[in-house]
Amino acid sequence: MDALSNLHSEIKACTQCSLRQGCTQVVPGEGNPEAGVVFFAEAPGAVEDERGRPLIGRSGTYFRIELARAGIKENEVYLSNIVRCRPPENRDPLPEEIESCWTWTLKTLQVIRPKVIVPMGRPALVTLSQKLGFHKKVGQNPIMKLAGIPFFVEEKHFFVFPIFHPAFAIRRSSLKPEFRAHLMYLAKAIPDWMRR
Question: Which of 27, 81, 190, 191 is the most exposed place for a label (fewest CB within 10 A)?
Answer without folding.
Answer: 191
